[in-house]
Write a structure and sequence with these properties.
This protein is mainly α and about 200 residues long. Helix content is about 70%, strand content about 0%.
Length: about 200
């Protein structure tokens, strides 16, 4: 499916928390941390009604807050996934920066970390990020860009197999096989990310 080094960038591994506090590895680890989690925090803030400047403030405070707390942070998978901790931090920062934050038409300030609607929105954003990461993992595997393009146009852009075959100069059978092959690889990548990313 994917190489171990490529797959590693999509995992929340306990080692990242060690690397965040290692002076030699710190800068690269923080960039990796930011790249993985800032888009999730930003998407959640936007869904809660934050304006662009507020989104930036929420993301900055969540990341900076974790940066400050990281020397004392001990990752324990038995206490829950990191994504739950990140959700709690994000809700708190939304309360600080967005006066009228709402999810599903309800004020966020009265929500708890176990609120079903909040969980639904958070999980939806998390899964969208995983799908995006899975698509990128699979896209990088295919040196033959035509195969991935056929999948993308048929599945993501809702074009017909006939249209795609004609525009890419391939047979309908090849377009269909590309769709099937890439769809299976994306499902496998999503399953990998669901198992590995905390």
């Amino acid at each position: 499916m994917t190489s171990p080094n490529e797959a590693d960038k999509y995992r929340t591994r306990p080692s990242i928390f060690v690397r965040l506090n290692d002076q030699k590895l710190r800068e690269m680890a923080w960039q990796e941390f930011h790249d993985q989690y800032a888009p999730i925090v930003a998407a959640f803030a936007r869904r809660a009604g934050a304006r662009p400047g507020e989104v930036d403030d929420v993301v900055e405070d969540v990341i900076a807050g974790f940066y400050e707390a990281s020397p004392r942070f001990v990752y324990d998978a038995l206490k829950g996934k990191f994504r739950g901790f990140l959700k709690t931090c994000t809700i708190r920062m939304l309360g600080k920066h967005v006066r009228k934050a709402k999810l599903a038409g309800r004020p966020l300030d009265g929500a708890t970390e176990v609120d079903v609607e909040v969980d639904h929105v958070w999980n939806d954003i998390w899964e969208q990020k995983q799908l995006s990461d899975a698509l990128e993992m699979v896209r990088k595997q295919y040196k033959d860009n035509t195969t991935f393009q056929a999948f993308k146009r048929i599945v993501l852009e809702d074009q017909s197999v006939e249209e795609v075959a004609q525009s890419l100069g391939i047979s309908k059978e090849s377009a269909y096989k590309a769709k099937t092959r890439i769809a299976a690889a994306v499902r496998e990548a999503v399953e990998f990310l669901r198992r590995e990313v905390g």
